[in-house]
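Ribonuclease PH
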Amino acid sequence: MRPSGRDLSEMRPVSIETGVTKHAEGSCLIKMGDTHVICTASLEPRVPPFIKGSGLGWVTAEYGMLPRSTGSRMRREATTGKQGGRTVEIQRLIGRSLRAGVDRVALGERQISVDCDVIQADGGTRCAAITGGWVALRLAVNKLMKAGDVITDPLISPVAAVSCGIYAGQPVLDLDYPEDSEAGVDGNFILRGDGQLIEVQMSAEGATFSRDQMGTLLDLAESGVAQLVEAQKAATA
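Tokens:
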């Protein structure tokens, strides 16, 4: 029995509310169970120096957790003068995951910055950030297309992510914090809506895993991502 009472292959309730901020070209509040993340996408008429003049667009991301998004207050990273290693790793993951669903030629030489701010954490924050980040990105691109600034839709496919792991010896989908903190194997799966894999992060957290078990977790992830993609499409329709 999972702590939440969910079936092994059952996702937490997912909701996506769009237009949650006034100024960003795209924004949403995604809730995956008790993990809540605000995602915004900002259009910027510039690109990083290393692609300037290439005609290619760029999508980048930043990620952060509010001080009381967890059970005890965390210090803001700004007070320490630098971002932690976990933060840097996650925002790089979000950026490269979203870029995998973008035709950068069609986007043109502009940048879209996606900011993901965790306001409440209960496991799977990076997965929620990627899934909500794509929704914010989709809404920002819609504005570009409506204004006629891009002719061809630069978004190839939705991008979504879900966690899977082995908890109490059983493969489970969409780990919450009680499961994530005690899972023998923990994994994050990022896929496009067309089924193409973008990234798989798996690690033994106290128990090794077999190739067959990895395949089972991937099957669960594909099912979970399919559900998330439907939620993304419904939110941006």
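The chain has a mean pLDDT of 96.
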